[in-house]
Each structure stands twice: as structure tokens, then as C-alpha cells.
Write a structure and sequence with these properties.
146 residues, mainly alpha, Four Helix Bundle (Hemerythrin (Met), subunit A), 6 helices, 79% helix, elongated
Length: 146
């Protein structure tokens, strides 16, 4: 499978961009507020787009033949996504109140676990289960948001 037809390779690049932004956020926490706020907004937007892409562009096409095993990962992912979005909302309130986000290190640690789960369990399964036409359609949608 080449990079043009691999959901895994495309989403790994997205994960790398998210990691870069959260590191940038970590570094900006003790800096001037406006710089930290802008960095947080970049990180938040990228992460929200990533979750949207997964939920709307990828999983709408996933229809496993073995339903009991094929859908096992979706409730896990949705629970993780909800935790991420709730944490972002808390952080956003803190930033909007002129404070540094307090949960950035906890979120960074959680995102690492989430990333590992997706890259080891989710994306390879999707790459195996979907045909090239489905993957191309998903990749085209993903690239619309990039």
C-alpha cells in the first residue's frame, strides 16, 4: 500500500502537526499572553479539525463485514474524542479568561495514548477493510480540510 492510498500515512502526518502545535503551546505557556492565546487557538483548531475528519470523513465510509469485531473501536474512539473536546473546552475558558490552560500537560499525555491507539489499531484496520476507491474518497475529503 502506498502513501497515496494509505489512511494511516496521511493521518500520521496530521498527528505530527498536532504534536508540533502542542509542544509549541507548552513552550508559550510562560510567554506573553497574546502569543500563548494565538498558539492555543492554532492548536485547538487543528485538533478539532482532526477529530471532525475522523468522525465525518473517515468513519462514515467504514462498514465492516464483521460488525461485532469491526465496530469495537468506534465507542472507544468516541469516548476519547469526547474527553479531548471537553478538555479543550475547559482550556478555552481558561484562555478566554486571560489565563494559561492548566490541563495542557494532561492533554498532551492523553493525546499520545490516543495517537498510539489510532496508529496501531484504527488506521491499519481501516486501510485493510476499505477498498482503494473508498480510501481515495476518504483521502480526498481529508485533503479538503488540510
Amino acid at each position: 500500500m502506498n502513501e497515496q492510498t494509505s489512511i494511516l500515512s496521511l493521518m500520521v502526518k496530521d498527528h505530527e502537526e498536532i504534536e508540533t502545535l502542542i509542544k509549541k503551546l507548552d513552550e508559550s505557556i510562560d510567554k506573553e499572553y497574546e502569543m500563548m492565546r494565538k498558539t492555543f487557538e492554532q492548536f485547538e483548531w487543528k485538533l478539532e479539525k482532526h477529530l471532525f475528519i475522523e468522525e465525518k470523513a473517515i468513519f462514515t465510509f467504514y462498514e465492516p463485514t464483521d460488525i461485532s469485531n469491526g465496530y469495537v473501536m468506534l465507542p472507544i474512539l468516541m469516548k476519547q474524542h469526547n474527553f479531548i473536546l471537553n478538555t479543550l473546552a475547559i482550556m478555552r475558558r481558561q484562555v478566554n479568561n486571560g489565563k494559561a490552560p492548566q490541563d495542557h500537560l494532561q492533554l498532551r499525555s492523553f493525546l499520545q495514548k490516543h495517537k498510539n491507539y489510532e496508529e496501531k489499531e484504527v488506521y491499519p484496520r481501516l486501510d485493510d477493510a476499505l477498498n482503494n476507491a473508498q480510501k481515495k474518497q476518504i483521502i480526498d475529503r481529508i485533503q479538503e480540510f488540510s
